[in-house]
Amino acid sequence: MPSLEQTCECGGSGELSAPRLRHDTPERAGLDPGELHHLVQDVHGLTAGERPWAPGAVLVAGRGPVVAVEEASGWAVRYASYDPGTDEGLELAGRTRVPMTRDTPFDLASLTKLFTAVAAVQQIERGTLGIDARVGAYLPDFAAAAAHGTTVRELLTHTSGMRPELPLYDCADDEGRLALLRAEPPVGVPGTYCYSDLNFLLLQHVLERVTGRGLDTLVHDGITRPLGMAATRFGPCPGAAATEDQRIPWAKAERGMLRGVVHDENAWSLGGVAGHAGLFSTGQDLAVFCRALLGGGAYGTARVLGPDFVDLLLTPPGLGFALDQPWFMGELAGRGAAGHTGFTGTSLVLDRATDTFLILLANTVHPRRRPPDSGPRARAATRVARAVRGS
User: Fold this and answer.
1) What's the domain range around 268?
2) Cβ neighbours for 94, distance < 8 A, ≥ 6 positions apart
3) What is the pTM of this model?
């Protein structure tokens, strides 16, 4: 496989630019075609049958600047509703089902946190945000976090002690939701890991306070627009894969079958733009996001982070990104692989040691949420790891 230096091209300014993605064979990517063939078969198997792992999925995998696999399987919309009596989805007639395509957008759920983390590190790079600064220095009105000395680093690493979530969706209005968040103190021991959506909701407020701009604007202007990720945005997104027939008691709100609006109840109650959830994107766009980080923060003629700040983002314990987690990274875990999963069925992994990336997007909560099963994600990542070793 050619090196990145060999594939760089000159931008309009005459400076070398980072390589853009191109579609090519597994061999050109330095990947074993047999393993990738099995990977594609595996994903098609995940969407088959009466009770599939997911009704539909999109797979994108590659190495270096090469996309070696891009595959869609199953249905973006398969069910009209969920029947709790039979514990089955009410299937749409064949002609009214919506097939999955390679450019189908997905509700990213917690993959949104990765974009919030990049937006935060951009402000750290610019000197407008201190990674070890106290949240109270930026948000003195968030009295509980201020009183406990919560820091920006603790928010980014889920070590603030905040509980996993708050029922913001039960509040009558935005003022009530804001008051609840402002008054919420850490309940755990600061410095101890506890995954929490509240960390990234607080981080959103910090970013919006220090920049004077909304998170949606920060993500668009600082990440998706320069990288050309035109399909990545906060909702609504009418053409997205369907998620859940969201009803109490299995969900937290009565909303019916959801498509193109955020699945997460707290993000929905906040208008769809939240630090922990709310973005929609495609496999193609997420491949660009992965390639930019693997390329030291650059893609084409755009640079969204300097290499040292990509290192900061992806060095243990990781800022927003989970590192070396075999439960969803399989055999890619071990040498600094980074990524995340989303409750709706989304996931991505990028591995700087092998210069590989894997995106597996699925609507596993369609027609209703089930106990999470990341075994298929781990097996897909293991296929990619073995494709590298077998190349």
Assistant:
1) 25-110+230-389
2) none
3) 0.95
